[in-house]
Amino acid sequence: MSGVEAREVVEAAVRRELFGPPPGEAPNGAPLDCSGPTWTFATKDEAAGQFHDRDTLEEVLTRSDPLRRYGVGVLYSGGTSGGAPEPEDVESAIIPGLAQNEDNPDQPPAELSRHPKQDETDSDDFDLSDANRRKPSAMAISFKVRVPKNGELRLRVTGAYYDPVKVTAPGTPQLTWWVRRPFTLDAVVTAEVLRRERKRTPIATTPVIEEPKLPPRIKPAVSVFTRLVPADRDPELRLVTIAVVDDVVGTGPGSAFFQVGFTAVAAEGLRIEPYPEVVRSDSDDEEESIALLYRHQRTFAIGHGCAAKWDEVQGAEDDIPTVPSVSADVLPAYEVTSLTPDVYEEHADGSRTSVSVSMKELAAASAEGDAQVEKVLGLYGKWIDDRAASIPDLPFRHQTAATRHVRLCREALERMKEGWYLIQNEPLTARAFRLANYAMLYQQIRSRLDKRKITKDSQGVYRPVGLHPTAEPGPRDGRWRAFQIAFILASLPELVDSSHPRRKLVDLIFFPTGGGKTEAYLGASAISLLSRRLRNPDDAGTDTLMRYTLRLLTAQQFLRASSLICVLEDLRSRSETELGTAPFGIGVWLGNDSTPNNWSSAERSLRQLRRDYYASNQFLLLKCPWCGTRMGPIRQARGQDTPGYVWAGGRFIFRCVDEQCRYNGREGLPVHVVDEDIYDSLPSIVIGTVDKFATMAWQPAAASLFGLGANGDRLFSPPGLIIQDELHLISGPLGSMVGLYEPVIDDLTTDHRGETPIPAKIIASTATVRSYEDQIKGLFGRTEVALFPPHGLGDC
């Protein structure tokens, strides 16, 4: 089964569970005669199990009534169909059962002062209050049509209601089961009805009965509301709302409708055109950008109490796109286009090759590596020029936003070129960049090593199975994707030069999950901490704070960062004159439920882990980040062994069990998970969660992470880089709370020793860019933000 097929199975199961039976579903269980209102079983056992209607093959609910069974696509009784006569003095022609004001249904209608937005209804005039209730009794869709003289809309409404069946069996109280009664209703809305001025019109429907189904006992009411398109007096253009209302008298499951949906099909020359777009004189830059990027994505219908969907868009002779039909869908599904993080160069013969940059070549400062970087910069520059050349062909209303987008792209390119110039001409930057590429190359190789099995020998000592792995790059290993190397070059000047005028600029990565953001983070972090050590080998404090929202750090991210630190520490140990004697390290700074806060807690947790199969593993690391050898709990007949987890000298350390491993020695791996250990060892990278920083007020020892001693005196430079993952999640109440602590963190990470304060560089990632500048300002207090990659002129 393919991934797509598996997804379809899951989607169908969710839809079946929430919405109800799909059309043509095979009957389940034993047949039951539901032609009468009662049924008596001869024995109690016969009443057990699933059943379906013997005659119609429809489901029978035996455990609960349909209102408890299904929660989506339900219309409750009590709606108003709008069939009553209209007063002559009604100006707004509000449909009974529709809200007069979307914000407050009891207030008079608001004035329509502008065109309706493409993705919103002209709801200032009306909206379905019955559709917006907790127990909705109506659903509707609104859309725009061009109505020729003989044009018409053909409607089909589908759904079901459930009839009760009283069931008795010996030795049990009387039960009420519910048998499904599906219906299909057809109707035609003529041009005469569609051209009425601000009129609501009940529409007669005809049941479509196919054997062995039964004629419906009850059916919903259908009505049409039609009016001219605001600010467009073309008599053929109309805004139409089709409403389906449960106006059945009565309450309870027997008066409700289920699995409701409907479709409107254009016929006899009628055309369904895009819903009116908004034309606003007060649009801000963000709204203009969105309008530009998604100008080809047209909305053809708006839902009320449901979603609206439409068929594939078709072209037209007058370049106005149309769709053959629109539908109401209470459980919509949309397949998001898969985006690739790869960039391809197209050749004259139609072939194309992936554009990437070799970490190995950059680490060696080879001419081939230089040429690969130059290609990335050149292709991006050409792409920008092509976009700029197309701006005059855009509609005038989009040209201002397009010009702004191209300007931001050029600024990003200039930042990349500045970073590349520094690498070519500034020795410290060049050395930091080369070492960072070496470290990232071998981080990538070592973090991808398969977990090596271990076995206990005759002396009871765990040893790895097989030979020690050789971490040598293959032909496809160690490649920067184009966006990764571009981002690193753009941010590099502020990382290596703390006095750079753009140091306070927040770089915000907006890229799909799985596109390589973590690799870009780690590359930036490696450059930051290496340049710091190259400037001053004794400046050994924490350099990078990697912050995640609550507990959203993944094991893979932790392993990658740990592998990077292991490679850097190996580098440092062979270049102490250049990189200092203090080891590189990584610390995981989480809450007490995730990692131990002190040594006594660590010892207690380790004992619990060795004793209890079900104890939480607070030490997180499950394989050696250098050689891949297994670490952590192994179940035994009684308790668990924990190879690689060592308690020695009153401290917890990770020590690989492979005697050939670089980190099999007494010091163990440079990975720290105990808070007290982190405060003492000052890891180069500290991975924490935003809530953990709130504990600083009660943990004076945490000052060491910011380069401060016990008396508040500065021992080392403060962290120079803050990486904030999943920024979009820090909003609402959580954002307000995090924002309270940010001024303190900002001050603690600012170096005040010189005449000009030096702030930390901030890099963040987000899954949404709506109001991102306001969020950055509200959270970090910084007004300069650079979105990466900058927007182009379209959504693809």
Can you give the helix content as a percent range?
25-40%
The radius of gyration computed from the alpha-carbon positions, rounded to a whole number of angstroms, is: 33 Å
- The fraction of residues in strands falls at 15-25%
Shape: globular
User: How many strands in all?
Assistant: 35
How would you describe what is shown here?
Helix content is 28%, strand content 22%. It is globular and about 90 Å long. The strands form eight sheets. Strands 1, 2, 3, 4, 8, 9, 11, 14, 17 and 18 form a ten-stranded mixed sheet that branches. The protein has an eight-stranded parallel sheet with strand order 31-26-32-25-33-34-24-35. With 796 residues, it is of the alpha/beta class. The chain is built from 17 helices and 35 strands.
Compact description:
The protein is of the alpha/beta class. The chain has 17 helices and 35 strands.
Describe the secondary structure blueprint for this structure.
Layout: H1 3-18, E1 30-32, E2 38-40, E3 51-53, E4 59-61, H2 66-69, E5 98-99, E6 127-128, H3 129-132, E7 138-146, E8 152-168, E9 175-190, H4 191-194, E10 199-203, E11 206-207, E12 221-228, E13 237-245, E14 258-267, E15 271-273, H5 285-293, E16 302-304, E17 307-310, E18 325-329, E19 343-346, E20 352-358, H6 359-363, H7 367-390, H8 396-425, H9 427-447, E21 454-456, E22 462-464, E23 479-481, H10 482-496, E24 506-510, H11 517-535, E25 544-548, H12 555-573, H13 576-579, E26 586-589, H14 599-611, E27 634-635, E28 640-641, E29 645-648, E30 651-654, E31 671-672, H15 675-681, E32 685-689, E33 721-724, H16 732-748, E34 761-766, H17 772-780, E35 785-788
Parallel strand pairs: 1-3, 2-8, 24-34, 24-35, 25-32, 25-33, 26-31, 26-32, 33-34
Antiparallel strand pairs: 3-4, 4-9, 5-6, 7-13, 7-15, 7-16, 8-9, 8-14, 9-11, 10-12, 12-13, 14-18, 17-18, 19-20, 20-23, 21-22, 27-28, 29-30
Helix pairs in contact: 5-8, 7-8, 8-9, 8-10, 9-11, 9-12, 10-11, 11-12
